[in-house]
Amino acid sequence: MKQIITSFLLIAISIFSVLGQAKKANTYHYTVDLTQVVDDKVMIELLPPHISSSEITFYLPKIIPGTYAIADYGRYVSDFKPVDKKGRALPFERVNDNTWKIKNATRLHKISYWVNDSFDTEISGPNIFKPAGTNIEENKNYLINSAGYFGYFENMKETAIVLNVVRSKDLYGSTALIPQNPSSKTTVKLEKGSQDNNKVVDTYLIDDYDEMIDSPLMYSRPDTAIIKIGNTEVLIGAYSPSQKITAKEIANSVREVLMAQKEYLGGNLPVEKYAFIFYFTQEPVYTYGALEHSASSFYYMPEATIEQMNQQLRDFAAHEFFHIVTPLTIHSEEIENFDYNDPKMSQHLWLYEGVTEYFAGNVQVKYELITPENYLDVLREKILTAESFKDTVPFTDISKYTLTQYKDQYYNVYQKGALIGMCIDIKLRKLSDGSYGLQNLVADLSKKYGKEKPFEDDKLFEEITALTYPEIGEFLNKYVAGTEKLPLKEIFEMVGINYIETFISPELNLGLESNAVTITQEDSSPKLAIANAQALNDQGKAFGFKDGDVLLKINGELIPYNQEFREFFFRQQQSLQKGKPFSYTVQRKNEAGELQEVELKAEAIVVEREVKHLLGINDQATPAQVSLRKSWLDD
Q1: Is-contact 118 64, C-beta < 8 A?
Q2: 363-399 residue pLDDT tens
Q3: How far is CA 116 from the centre of its chain?
Q4: CB pairs under 8 A, 24+ apart, for 282-287?
Q5: Going by C-beta distance under 8 Å and a sequence separation of 6 or more, which residues neighbour residue 153?
Q6: pLDDT tier at 288, thresholds 50, 70, 90
Q7: With b meaning 16 or more CB within 10 Å and e meaning fewer, what string describes 528-542?
Q8: Which of 140, 193, 389, 486, by CA, is between 20 and 30 Å from 515?
Q9: Coil, strand or helix at 413
Q10: Residue 496's closest CA among 615, 386, 407?
């Protein structure tokens, strides 16, 4: 790397007068200059708090809360340099990707290092979940998930932090943090006294390292909207490279669901300010998502129009926003005392992610944002998806060991975890004649514990039982801490929902069985491929598919591997006529190993297909069932 040696910018603000209190004197002072990008990297400079030991360990996180996967952020750090007041280098040892031991630490005056971003830098190690990642697009977009930029000293996570972000004046920082110079008129003074009027600095005062990790920032050209939800000011910040979607459109889309969530949570929200931060990518992506924080959430999504992603935005926003309750208000000691470099996992992902996912759907049907029939389709999809995961291991174990032997089971927390929440909700309503549900239980747990008071992981089921009924404790021990299958038929019957676990249906279909196809990366774009041609049904076998065939077109139409994917396949399915031919175009290797496009044709035939987990409203339900269903879906 060509290194540019220059004096770091001196910030023309009175940091110490801003701090005001003596307790702030022992503080981390971090500066990142977004106007100086070299080889896709930015420099971090740290003036450390007082160090009294001769040796000190400095960390970047191995993992952060809410991700449940190892990240090893320190991999992206280079040219680490601790120096004394005279600029002389201090000896240090890099212990591993995330750990540096600094010698003669009582003389430590400054640490500087360069940071690369995780979005487009190929470094060996685990893939970082995009919403927890970092991005450096010079003069366009800077995503600051703090774990990828800023570290902490051993036993000094509780120390206050001053964060200075130097930026060009035409960029804006979307974050739940409140800058100390909100007018954004503070210019940057160069070392010899001249000013750069094109640069400004945002200064944030942060209570401790946990709050810093909990507060993502995104700098880009301004595209923001603000909406008021009860007592809470909600900021929407968006980065859409081709302006396909705007913050104002997102605000109009999610406003209704946020208003519904306010009512769902009793009329008031536990935060005064909240930020939704959206990064839309033009890159072809198959996996995308969001990450929750105490007063914000960050979203990484493929760029599309508001019409294409309206419902998905609502679903994502509803889920992440509900995290202000679990786990950000109700959580165990493992989360309260989170160890970024030697994490201990809680047993209760069913609560943190599962109940949150359940609430995100249930609130929409309760406040008529989706129909009951739509909602039953959502639940059916979760049942179907959950079947592909282990159901012979206690869900508490899946949670506790999600970083190790059960890391491939994590996605089930959004499926079976949500179904656990549904079962508890309906069972509570049955036991209370409709007067008490999961919403009430979560509210009571919030009163008993709260953001600053964690529960003991091993005692949560006892606490829930004490707040509710012995039958709820039996359910938790049998179906969450135990290995018995969820009693879905029994639960649905309580609310007058017909549930058919399986039956055989003759139908026309496209011939692609889920156990016969897989996702492959073709030309850096995810596509469907035939993985097991023998597992195809008779319709699929009629085409003569071969293992490795990559699906490109149906009936001459390109398969859209984006938000339109499901709608496209549904439309193709609906167009089938018995005895009429239809076609696939696939990419296949010939005998010479060269890729070529091959068109495969076959007539549409009736095949027998196993249909599973059908749900429908029982028109013959008893008054008691109807009343309970109303409590579940309407009240």
Answers
A1: no
A2: 999 999 999 999 999 999 999 989 989 999 999 999 9
A3: 22
A4: 282/241, 282/242, 284/524, 284/525, 284/526, 284/561, 284/562, 285/526, 286/519, 286/526, 286/561, 287/130
A5: 48, 49, 51, 56, 57, 58, 59, 159
A6: confident
A7: bbbeebeebbebbbb
A8: 486
A9: helix
A10: 615
Residue pointed to by tokens 């909207």:
225
Task: Report helix, strand or coil for 461.
Answer: helix
Q: Tell me, what amino acid is at 454?
A: P
Residues of the chain with CATH 1.10.390.10: 325-496+619-635
* N-terminal to C-terminal alpha carbon distance within the chain: 62
For the question of whether the overall pTM of this predicted structure is more than 0.90, the answer is no
Class at the top of the CATH hierarchy for domain 505-612: mainly beta
As given in the structure block, the two tokens for residue 508 are 């026309």
Count of residues for the chain? 635
Contact 231/267 with Cβ under 8 angstroms? no
Q: Which residues contact 632 (CB under 8 A, 6 or more apart)?
A: 362, 425, 426, 429, 437, 495
CATH class of 15-218: mainly beta
Q: What is the pLDDT of residues 59-70, one digit of tens each?
A: 999 999 999 999
Please state the three-class secondary structure of 98-109 as a single string.
CEEEEECHHHCC
Strands 161-168, 28-33: parallel, antiparallel or unpaired by DSSP?
Answer: parallel
Per-residue model confidence as pLDDT tens digits over 192-235: 555 667 899 999 999 999 999 999 999 999 999 999 998 899 99
Q: Where in the chain is the domain with CATH 2.30.42.10?
A: 505-612
Annotation: CATH topology of 223-309: Zincin-like (3.30.2010)
Going by C-alpha positions, the residue among 529, 525, 564 that lies closest to residue 545 is: 529
Give the C-alpha separation, 393 to 349, whole Å.
Answer: 14
Asked whether the CA dihedral 440, 441, 445, 446 is positive or negative, the reply is negative
